[in-house]
Amino acid sequence: MLIPTILCGGAGSRLWPVSRETHPKPFMRLPDGQSLLQKAFSRAAALPGVAQVLTITNRELFFKTEDEYRPVNPTGLATGFVLEPFGRNTAAAVTMAALVVQHQHGDAAQLVVLPADHLIADQAAFAQAVATAQTLASQGRVVTFGIQPDAPETGFGYIEGEGHTVKRFVEKPNLEAAQAYLASGHYLWNSGMFCFAAGTLLAEMAQHAPAILAACQQCLAASRTLAGKGMAQTELDAPTFHLVPDDSIDYALMEKTTHAAVVPCTLGWSDIGSWSAVGNLTAPDALGNRVLGQALLHHTTGCYIQSADRLVGAVGVSDLIVIDTPDALLVAHQNHAQDVKLIYNQLKKQGHEAHKLHRTVHRPWGTYTVLEEGHHFKIKRIEVKPGQKLSLQMHHHRSEHWIVVSGTAVVVNGEQDIMLRPNESTYIPAGHKHRLVNPGVIDLVLIEVQSGQYLGEEDIVRFDDQYGRA
């Protein structure tokens, strides 16, 4: 039995301003319209012998992940989720996955661990590499996948190996060392993908990282699991999960175990770790420019420009990255693509919302888009999916005015239950309990006008919520 396990987390700070805390890198749309997460699911589901696809992700990304899987899972392959209250690094995630799989399927069940933000072009080669890894895993090995390098890359860790034998793991090298590794022919890029039997992984963690294993076991015992038709969901207990040591699976286990093995492979693999890598997915013009969206270029060479909503004009520039979003614009030199994370880190340090939220924010019930905001007012476009409803809630510092644009709304406003149709509205004073429901079969769209002394998203008290956020 094979359980592909997708790790869907991380901020993807080098791909700001598209990748943000609540819309991280795996959810980015690629030029073909699919997200990296959708490609990871399809790649995993296509492997022979798959019984279930397990996903480890943040609690806040659960509904967003379900929405991503729906169009690429037409056969209804069983899915499982382990929901983290916050990130605790890969050792915790992998150990939790092994514990869940062991509990559900036994020690012999095998996991293949796949980061959600990688791209693999050759599915046949990937399936063959997984089959080789499964054979090694059945022999009690903890298997990693090593990518045959084609350049002296300084952004990856390396594995020195011979056949399936791992001699050592190497940190990200400088350019001189990377060139030597490439020339030697004995080094592979460390892909961050793994394969092992659940019982093997847990036995190795007991020997080499017992504190992590014990803390994960304690957390899982305190957590709740819900199971339904074709889906199981384990929501990790936050207080005990906080006690799990923060470490990577490479440091905690792979560099210590004597049971490590590597599968050398050529998969058309990329970790899409910068805007330069994203740009390479689009065909260049005669001057080396790659454009996704709208752009007019004059005497411009070697640039990557992405703009979905606005026209970008570029005159007399070379080797630039230009990424335009509704609320943020990135301009960077190609040689400094890795340094975009420094802007993200500055925004986070300043508490600026642009590191965390887009103007359009996804919620379990739909989306909202900030259209305009100023001193003591904010205007949003709210879209609620059919059959969905917002929490029963209250705000201390702001009042709201809702105007229906299309669809039908059922509104709880204080002691009143009101049905609103297009061009009808209601006013909700500060301190009133209220709720918005879409009882129809089409999307409900409305405009919300907020006014008050404080308009932050933190000013919300939830009394009841079908998504578990109360």
List the helices and strands and how they pair.
Blueprint (H helix, E strand, L loop, with lengths): L1 E7 L27 H10 L7 E6 L3 H8 L9 E6 L4 H17 L4 E6 L3 E2 L2 H15 L4 E6 L10 E5 L2 E6 L4 H10 L2 E11 H11 L1 H13 L1 E5 L2 E5 L2 H4 L7 H6 L5 E6 L3 E2 L4 H5 L10 E9 L5 E12 L4 E5 L4 E5 L6 H11 L9 E4 L2 E9 L2 E8 L7 E3 L3 E9 L2 E5 L2 E5 L4 E4 L5 E4 L6 E9 L8 E4 L6
Parallel strand pairs: 1-2, 1-4, 2-3, 3-11, 6-12, 14-15, 15-16
Antiparallel strand pairs: 4-9, 5-13, 6-9, 7-8, 7-9, 10-11, 16-17, 18-19, 19-20, 20-27, 21-28, 22-25, 22-27, 23-24, 23-26
Helix pairs in contact: 3-6, 3-7, 6-7
Provide the descriptors you would attach to this structure in a database record.
single chain, 470 residues, alpha+beta, Spore Coat Polysaccharide Biosynthesis Protein SpsA, Chain A, Jelly Rolls, eleven-stranded mixed beta sheet, six-stranded antiparallel beta sheet, globular
